[in-house]
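Recall the central idea of this unit: under ordinary conditions, the amino acid sequence of a chain determines the structure it adopts. In this exercise we apply that idea directly, starting from the sequence alone.
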Amino acid sequence: MSVTQALAAEPAVHNRPERHRPDRPSMLGVGVIIWLGSEVMFFSSLFAAFFTIRAHAITWPPPGAQLDTVRAGIFTVILVATSFTMQKAVFDQERGEREGAKKWVWITFVMGCAFVVNQFFEWVDLSKVYATNPTDTAYGSLFYITSGVHGLHVFLGLAAMILLLGRLKGPKGDPGETAVFQGVSYYWHFVDVVWVGLYSCLFLLK
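Accordingly, the structure predicted from this sequence is:
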């Protein structure tokens, strides 16, 4: 009876999604983490420049600088939420649930695009005001440089998600696919954390 049960259960085992969870960190993941260490130093220099110029300014922010803290806060929450959706995509991919991974990558992509679009219109609005124009004040220059560099990183992350969706087209993945997913997720989490710091400095710190 036990042999019959084992034979009956065998097809169900073969029908389970293939798992690609590695036993140890991939070389790609380790390389991404090391590279992100250099990115930490780069953004640290931007933060240092921000606080140095702010410390020597007579008034900060300059008169007339009006930032929409609530609007930026809403899109900050949206961007932070993408860390959870991206990680859910990684978990699904590791379990072999490719359709679920594809769905969560798309959700992350759309939310990330919403953040970039909002930032673009925010730049357009702020450029019309003298206090926040990047060519007129140091405050405006710092705002556009720091948020612009971060926006570029977000755009690169979105491009990486397009590559992930391309890898998910086939019915089955490969062992290297998981490493790519994890590497992109590390990068995306970093981008989200950096923006929390930038939002705190640019919008909340007076």
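Helices lie at 2-15, 27-56, 69-94, 98-127, 138-167, 175-204.
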